[in-house]
Each structure stands twice: as structure tokens, then as C-alpha cells.
């Protein structure tokens, strides 16, 4: 039995917050794609490379407020916010993950600027 989307999403945030890029790579299908308002990252290697080398802030922490699992185990929506190293909220996010055969296959990210900024 493959891990469900909730488990994979939890591991995804752990990998990002702890700079576990090999762990992140292992969670994603080779054809993984992320859609977000400002760009689309296509393929596991492009995504991992961006997260490791090109994202604007790497010393951050995802604070999860809610996981909403679909009736099937292959989709989850996650609501939370991203904090910088000082604990200041950078933005609120809503991530929709799709999983297939025990790996994350797609991520659609929606963000809203923090009201604290």
C-alpha cells in the first residue's frame, strides 16, 4: 500500500523546512509539476533545483493550519502560512497536492500576502 497524500504533504513540508532536498526528490514523481501564480515548474529536478538554489528565502518554516483530505487518498488541500526565521508571517498559502503511486505528482499553490506586511 502506498502512503496517502496527507502523509506525503507532511513529509514535503518537513523536507523544505529542514533543507532535505534528497528527501524532497524522493517524494516527487519524475514528471512532478507545480503551478503557481507567478510560474510553473515542470519536472522533479527543476522543482528541487528551484527550492534548493533559487527561492527568495530558504530559512523559513511552514505553519500548517489545516489538512483537508479528499475522499480518495490521492488529493489533499493544505492551508497554512510561511514564516521567516524571526517568526514573522510572510504570506498565507493554500496548496493542493495530487498523489499517484505513493509519490506527489502535482502541486497547485495559491498565496495571499500577509496582512502583517
TrEMBL record:
Gene3D superfamilies listed in its UniProt record: 3.10.450.50
InterPro entries: NTF2-like_dom_sf (IPR032710), SnoaL-like (IPR037401)
Coiled-coil blocks: none
Domain SnoaL-like: 9-106
Protein name: SnoaL-like domain-containing protein
Organism of provenance: Haloferax sulfurifontis ATCC BAA-897
Lineage of the organism: Archaea, Methanobacteriati, Methanobacteriota, Stenosarchaea group, Halobacteria
Amino acid at each position: 500500500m502506498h502512503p496517502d497524500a496527507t502523509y506525503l504533504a507532511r513529509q514535503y513540508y518537513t523536507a523544505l523546512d529542514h533543507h532535505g532536498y534528497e528527501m524532497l526528490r524522493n517524494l516527487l514523481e519524475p514528471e512532478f509539476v507545480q503551478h503557481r501564480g507567478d510560474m510553473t515548474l515542470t519536472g522533479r529536478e527543476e522543482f528541487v533545483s528551484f527550492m534548493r538554489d533559487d527561492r527568495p528565502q530558504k530559512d523559513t518554516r511552514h505553519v500548517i493550519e489545516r489538512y483537508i483530505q479528499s475522499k480518495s487518498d490521492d488529493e489533499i488541500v493544505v492551508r497554512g502560512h510561511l514564516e521567516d526565521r524571526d517568526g514573522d508571517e510572510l504570506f498565507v498559502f493554500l496548496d493542493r497536492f495530487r498523489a499517484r503511486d505513493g509519490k506527489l505528482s502535482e502541486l497547485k499553490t495559491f498565496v495571499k500576502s500577509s496582512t502583517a506586511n
